[in-house]
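Deliverable D2.4 — example input (structure tokens):
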């Protein structure tokens, strides 16, 4: 049996995992505080079998001028585990978030 699995992290979901002070898309990135940016916030694994293990890494970039804390990570599906590999992303740096 095959399943069609979607990994989807949207801006609303990212708001849950980021601290306050982040800027919305299109806002001035020179604003005080952290500013999260995910270039590809969506991943479609396509058709996979029920015993398949899918592992995808999202990259979260901090375009702000202070550290970005990654907390309270949630996926959009109960069959997906979202794993933070580092709890803080420094200004101008990127950090991974894995979806398994």
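Example output (designed residues):
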């Amino acid at each position: 049996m095959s399943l069609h699995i979607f990994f989807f992290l949207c801006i609303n979901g990212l708001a849950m995992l980021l601290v306050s002070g982040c800027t919305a898309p299109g806002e001035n990135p020179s604003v005080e505080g952290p500013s999260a940016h995910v270039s590809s916030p969506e991943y479609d694994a396509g058709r996979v079998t029920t015993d398949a293990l899918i592992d995808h890494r999202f990259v979260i970039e901090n375009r702000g001028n202070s550290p970005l804390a990654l907390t309270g990570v949630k996926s959009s599906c109960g069959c997906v585990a979202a794993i933070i590999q580092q709890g803080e992303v420094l200004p101008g740096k990127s950090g991974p978030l894995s979806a398994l």
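The chain has one helix and eight strands.
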